[in-house]
Amino acid sequence: MTTKPSVASESEGAHPSPPAEAIVSQTSTDLAPSRRDAVAAMLACGSFLAAVAIPVSAAVGLTLDPLLRKSGSSAGSSTEGNAAAELASGFLPIISFDELPEDGTPVKSVVRIDVRDAWQVFPDQPVGTIYLRRFPDRTVVVFSDICPHLGCKVDYEADQSRFFCPCHSSAFALDGQAMNKVSPRPLDQLEARIDPAGMVWVKYQEFRTGIPEKVVV
């Protein structure tokens, strides 16, 4: 006698297969969070790039700003070009030649420069004092007011036509030569030029004191 295998019916506990529509719906539901995560990641990445790009672009702008201004200034007139050349060689504009007395009386003038500290500029800062003398052949002689003896400031005494140091009584003639033996050398003469517009340019330097030689410090 042959025994047929038994087939379980639904009533006996078999689990029916889910419909195809349910499978598709479940798959779509499982994929939805992944899309949301991807969109959120893209938005976060965009926000990060924007946050980085803004300060970086600002920093680049600050870095290039002096260079751009420098390149833009090169398009000026020939007069500005001459002035730039004088400044580049260490000469500073001091006074118009015509403002100096024709009789050669010394004129005391303060040397000023624009001091740059990182990105800040402090204009017209005094760095020293000089004496200028005009001559009939349209030349000018410039002396530092620092006494070569020990570095005090010399005064011009008009009543005696001399330069005098009040610290140790050094005395100098109008041509800068020492009138006594206190100072080891004459007054320090500075390089000077007169441009076509009549402006006197001076190369301001300071020198070691207490020695016979003229040595730039």
Which strand order spans the largest sheet, edge to edge or round the barrel?
Answer: 1-9-8-4-3-2
CATH topology of the largest domain: Rieske Iron-sulfur Protein
Note the main sheet.
6 strands, antiparallel
% residues in beta strands:
25-35%
Unreliable spans are 1-14, 20-32, 52-76
The Cα radius of gyration reads 43 Å
Give the helix level as a range of percent. 25-40%
Number of strands: 9
CATH class of the largest domain: Mainly Beta
Order of helices and strands: HHEEEEEEEEE
Please give a handful of descriptors for the protein shown:
217 residues, alpha+beta, Rieske Iron-sulfur Protein, 6-stranded antiparallel beta sheet, 3-stranded antiparallel beta sheet, 2 helices, disordered N terminus, 2Fe-2S
Describe this structure in words.
The chain has 217 residues and is an alpha+beta fold. It has 2 domains: 39-68; 90-216, Rieske Iron-sulfur Protein, CATH 2.102.10.10. It is 30% helix and 27% strand. It has helices at 20-73, 78-88; strands at 91-96, 107-117, 120-135, 139-144, 155-157, 162-164, 171-172, 189-194, 199-203. The strands form 2 sheets. A 6-stranded antiparallel beta sheet has the order 1-9-8-4-3-2, with helices on one face. It is globular and about 90 Å long. The termini are far apart.
Briefly summarize what is shown.
This protein is an alpha+beta fold. It is built from 2 helices and 9 strands.
SSE layout and pairing:
Elements: H1 20-73, H2 78-88, E1 91-96, E2 107-117, E3 120-135, E4 139-144, E5 155-157, E6 162-164, E7 171-172, E8 189-194, E9 199-203
Region (Disordered): 1-22
Pfam families: Rieske (PF00355)
Protein name: Cytochrome b6-f complex iron-sulfur subunit
